[in-house]
Amino acid sequence: GGNVYFQAVENLDTLIDFAGKHHWHAQNGQPGSGNNKHGANGRDLVIPVPPGTLIYDVDFDLLLKDLSEVGLKVRICRGGRGGKGNKAFATSTNQTPRYAEPGKKGQERNIQLELKLIADVGLVGMPNAGKSTLISRCSAARPKIADYPFTTIEPVLGIVELSDFRRFVMADIPGLIEGAHNGAGLGYEFLKHIERTRIIVHILDIMPTVGSDAVENYYGIRHELEQYNGRDAKIYKVKASRDERTFEGTIIVDVERNLPVFGHQKS
Predict the structure, then answer these.
(1) Where does the pLDDT of residue 40 fall: very low under 50, low under 70, confident under 90, or very high at 90 and above?
(2) Comparing C-alpha atoms, which of 29, 28, 25, 64 is closest to residue 45?
(3) pTM of the model
C-alpha cells in the first residue's frame, strides 16, 4: 500500500481545509495476476499543509515533525506490505494452490495539526489598540474592525507590497491581556504565533480608555512576551496608533520619557 506524507507548500496559510475531514488513507496495493505477476503498489498520498505546521502523534503526545519551511516533507504512515502469491506455496503435489498470503495492514496514526504562523512582522498590543487598522492600511487584508476590544479573535495575515517589487508578510495577532503567557484570554493560542516572526511591532494607544495607562500597557505587553519565550528586545519596535497632532505635546513627551524604545508617527 501507499505511504501517507505531509508536505509544506506555498500559497497555503491556514488549516481550514482540514475542518470536518478526519480520515486520510493512501491507495491500496493491487492484487497479483497470472504468469506470476506482482500486484501494483498503491500510490502515496501527499497532503499539503502551510509552512509552520506542527504534526503531533496524539496517542503518544509526541511531536513528529515541524514543517517550518516550504518543501519539508514527512512520512506519517507507512503502507502495508504485500502478501505472497499462491505460487509461493506450490508443492510437488500441488502446483496451483488456491491459497495466497494476505497482505499486512498499513500503519495507522491519530494526528493533530497545529499551525504557528510564519511572518516577517508580527503586530502585538492591547485589545483595540489599532493593529487591525494598520494591517488593513498596509496590505489587502481586511480584518474586522470595530470600536470595542477583542474584535480580532483569529490571527490575520497580510502581504505588504513594496515599491521595489519586494514584499513581506505581516501578521495581526489578537489583543493580549495580563496573564496571556499563562493562557489568560486565549493568550497561549495567540502568543504561539509570534515565535517565528522576525520583528515584533508593538502598537501602542497613547490615549487609551479611561482607567488604562499607555506606559503601563507597554510594559504589560512586554512582560507577557518575555515570560512566554524571552523575545530579544533588540528586534522589538514600538509605534503609536494615534495621530499625535490631536493631543497636547506634554502627553507625547511623557510617553517618550517613560519608554526606552519609542517612535511616534501618524497612523
Answers:
(1) confident
(2) 25
(3) 0.59
